[in-house]
Backbone:
């Protein structure tokens, strides 16, 4: 929390020194503050913030890649696949041990990544019900979610 | 400089329109409502976002400011929710579904070791 405040303060001071309130200037100030926090993490105790911010950045990149893949898959399926070769089905995905925020983020991202849409959350929040567009092997879909989205989200929420 | 901006604007605008067209083809071709929600959710998000970015480039930052970024952000926030609600209604009411009808249960315990 303290690190976030330092980062905001550095960004605002940078903006004041530059004498311009353009968003690009504020963003540059933010980056400068972040670099300072990363360099002086033993003194400022900002290691946790730096780790989470980097995790979040990495997650955004991963998400952009997954989203691009999912759109490519959509193109292939809508134009070239024969409908009879599709194997759509419902699967469940275990989300015990995740907080509500994490489940929310995960389900939202699942809706935007290749071939899966979130349908429902179990009443006791123990698992998600997903619909998969083409699932000859449901376990592979779960492993893929584990490997990419779940790991990415957990890298900045805890 | 300006010519490149025009080319990029046109490419993004046409690309966005093409993505929406393809997702509409998917909407017609795919077998059931759940599969169609896939095509809508992803295609519309990308297509509308590309059209918005194209609009941003053609208006220039002085006019459009950062509103377009906010608009794209809200596309990403809301369209998946709409497709999720659609899918939820289909499953709850038991509308006809294509493919395997039974739910494939997750048998692996994915709780983190030493978690809650």
Residues:
């Amino acid at each position: 929390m303290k690190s976030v405040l330092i980062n905001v303060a550095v960004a605002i001071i940078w903006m004041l020194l530059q004498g311009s309130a353009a968003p690009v200037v504020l963003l540059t100030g933010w980056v400068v503050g972040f670099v300072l926090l990363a360099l002086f993490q033993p003194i400022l105790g900002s290691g946790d913030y730096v780790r989470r911010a980097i995790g979040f950045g990495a997650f955004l990149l991963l998400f952009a890649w997954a989203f691009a893949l999912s759109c490519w898959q959509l193109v292939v399926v809508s134009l070239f696949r024969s409908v009879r070769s599709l194997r759509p089905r419902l699967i469940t995905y275990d989300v015990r041990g995740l907080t509500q925020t994490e489940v929310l983020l995960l389900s939202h991202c699942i809706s935007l990544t290749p071939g899966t849409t979130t349908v429902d959350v179990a009443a006791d929040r123990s698992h998600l019900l997903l619909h998969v567009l083409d699932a000859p092997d449901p376990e592979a879909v779960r492993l893929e979610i584990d490997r990419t989205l779940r790991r990415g989200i957990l890298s900045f929420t805890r | 400089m300006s010519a490149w901006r025009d080319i990029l604007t046109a490419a993004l605008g046409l690309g966005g329109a093409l993505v929406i067209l393809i997702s509409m083809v998917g909407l017609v071709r795919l077998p059931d409502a759940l599969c169609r929600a896939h095509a809508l959710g992803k295609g519309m998000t990308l297509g509308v976002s590309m059209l918005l970015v194209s609009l941003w480039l053609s208006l220039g930052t002085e006019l459009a400011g950062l509103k377009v970024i906010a608009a794209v952000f809200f596309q990403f926030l809301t369209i998946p929710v709409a497709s999720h609600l659609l899918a939820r209604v289909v499953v709850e009411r038991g509308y006809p579904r294509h493919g395997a009808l039974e739910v494939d249960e997750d048998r692996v315990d994915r709780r983190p070791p030493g978690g809650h």
Summary: The CA atoms of residues 70 and 114 of chain A lie 4 Å apart. Chain A touches chain B at residues 23, 67, 70-71, 74-75, 77-79, 83, 86-97, 107-108, 111-112, 115, 117-120, 127, 129, 131, 133, 135, 138-139, 142, 146, 150, 154 (CB under 8 Å). Residues 49-157 of chain A form one domain. Strands of chain A lie at 89-94, 116-121, 127-132.
